[in-house]
Amino acid sequence: MRIRFGLQMRRLREAAGLQSKDAAKALRVNPSRLSRFERGAASLKAAEVDVLLKLYETPDDHAERLRALGDEARRRGFRLDVPDWAETYIALEAVADEVKIYNGELVPGLLQTEDYAHALLRTSPKTVPPGSVDDAVATRLGRQERVNDPSFKIWIMLGEAVLHRAVGGADVIREQLLHLHTLNKQENVCIQLIPYEAGGHAALGTSFAMFRMIDLAATFAYVEWLTDSVYIDQPEDIEVYGYVCNKLMASGTDKPTTQRMLMRRIRDLS
């Protein structure tokens, strides 16, 4: 809900020919707070929304609908056991109609087993304090309910290295690969592997996710680092990520080949 509200308010600002700094000045807030609001990572008070609606010269009937949407977004406000900069990713994941994720090294959180997530999150006490690992894992597992929603389309592209990086040891990675094998039987899930023999490609050295919301005619790309992330929605940038994503999908394995490669690695680990 926050994503939808923030996006619609941003579109109003842009239609009014205003930059984010102009809106932030009218609110007397730091531009970073407005940026977080527009991408769904923060909320504004009803009075602050009114200031923006007046600034954007919003017609009365549209303004009333947006006020109602804002009220609903605040009621549904969430607080997750993740860093502030990661909330946008989780908000996008919760409302998207489809997601495409590339990772050359690791299984994405949406498909991780509990033991794999524990082993991964324990590796860096600087990013996830030891006392917060259990809560972080619980949050991650809770997000996975969407995987079983047949209307949520999931494309996952993984480098072949994911099969061989023994996060948590042989037993943990074997269980994780079995989980991927099971999930890949679902009609709404497509897991592809980018084999070593595919050679170089434009996404080497990075990972990214793309979220599409059909009713909003909006697509977002998301790139994350250890302590920060970037949220991308400019059409020219989205075109680049979409192009690279399509290239990866074209060079990746089909479902039967993915299943065979997973099972072969599972047997090797047994």
UniProtKB/TrEMBL annotation:
Which superkingdom? Bacteria
- Molecular function GO labels: DNA binding
This protein's species is: Actinocatenispora thailandica
Cite the InterPro entries for this sequence: Cro/C1-type_HTH (IPR001387), DUF5753 (IPR043917), Lambda_DNA-bd_dom_sf (IPR010982)
Q: Where is the HTH cro/C1-type domain?
A: 9-62
Q: What is this protein called?
A: Transcriptional regulator
Q: Which PROSITE patterns does the entry link to?
A: HTH_CROC1
